[in-house]
Amino acid sequence: PANTVGIIGLGVMGAPMAENLLRAGYNVIGHDISEAAVKRLVAAGGRAGGDIAGTLAGAGTVITMLPDSPQVEQVVLGPGGVLEHAEPGLLYIDMSTVRPETSRKIAEAAAAKGVRALDAPVSGGEKGAIDGTLSIMVGGDADDVEAARQVFEALGTTIVHVGPVGAGQTVKAANQLVVGGVYALIAEAIVLLEASGVDAGRGLDVLAGGLAGSRILDLKRQTMVKREFRPGFRIDLHHKDMGIALAAAREAGVALPMTGMVAQLIAAARAQGLGALDHSALLKVIERINS
Ligand code: NAD
């Protein structure tokens, strides 16, 4: 059982993560409400769980990689969910990005069933998931983090235990506000360069090599200049994450003015019908402000 991993949520991130677990030698049982997603896993050598109970059968570890807090709560706490079917000793790892309170609520319910729970959201995007180079920020008990380490090593290269349950999600919220801000400013740089008659691609090449350089500039500047916005990471999901960051700020009693502004730009992108595009489509919002 220790080498069998169940995974629920086989989307942009969950599918390549499951494939990396297979490559690392784990037996992988997967479940998703999308049949096509399950077929992809089976084609890669995994097994279809059929439902949540079937996905837990024989698995020592179960991972969720779902869109948002309501889906995670339903799958874990809901009728027919993970905790209803879990045997004591199961290691449950939520790698989705959700509210820290969701992680704490789940860990409490899990503990009552003898199930160990970690929140372990990730950064690195679709490419990090495919390459197995995710950054994984883990909240929970140190012993449980150690128990999960081998699984994490199949998925990522930077694995950091950042604190108790919920702390992983707080770190992820910090990550998302930085990522959103960087995209917004790259978009503004492109608009300025083009409006001034300067080649934006060449301009950003220079930025990438200097102090303004970033992983986002490295990976995304060419597609942004070409206006290719296939997700990747959908605007809708980043909108959710800005909400998580602002709620965390409110709870912590701090003001994050830039985060508020970026959250409004992402809300505008959504209002303009861009929710299904990659978050680099913030460029369209900045262009529309100027057209
Ligand atoms: P996605 O929408 O591509 O995948 C989510 C999957 O969950 C879908 O296949 C969907 O069918 C499935 N699903 C939804 N509800 C379900 C349910 N009740 N039972 C079973 N399956 C269900 O999303 P994604 O891009 O893979 O993101 C997943 C999580 O990871 C999100 O929390 C996101 O914020 C986070 N994340 C995404 C990225 C990225 O670059 N895409 C990067 C880091 C973190």
TrEMBL record:
**Per its UniProt entry, which superkingdom is the organism in?**
Bacteria
What Pfam families does the annotation carry?
A: NAD_binding_11, NAD_binding_2
Q: From its record, what is one biological process in GO terms?
A: organic acid catabolic process
Keyword vocabulary terms for this entry: NAD, Oxidoreductase
Q: Which PROSITE patterns match?
A: 3_HYDROXYISOBUT_DH
InterPro entries assigned? 3-OH-isobutyrate_DH-rel_CS, 6-PGluconate_DH-like_C_sf, 6PGD_dom2, 6PGDH_NADP-bd, HIBADH-like_NADP-bd, HIBADH-related, NAD(P)-bd_dom_sf, Tartro_sem_red
> What residues sit in the active site?
K172
Sequence ranges assigned to domain 6-phosphogluconate dehydrogenase NADP-binding in this UniProt record: 4-163
- Start and end of every 3-hydroxyisobutyrate dehydrogenase-like NAD-binding domain? 166-286
GO MF terms, alphabetically ordered? 2-hydroxy-3-oxopropionate reductase activity; NAD binding; NADP binding
Residues in coiled coil: none
Query: What family is this?
Result: Belongs to the HIBADH-related family.
Q: What is the designated name of this protein?
A: 2-hydroxy-3-oxopropionate reductase
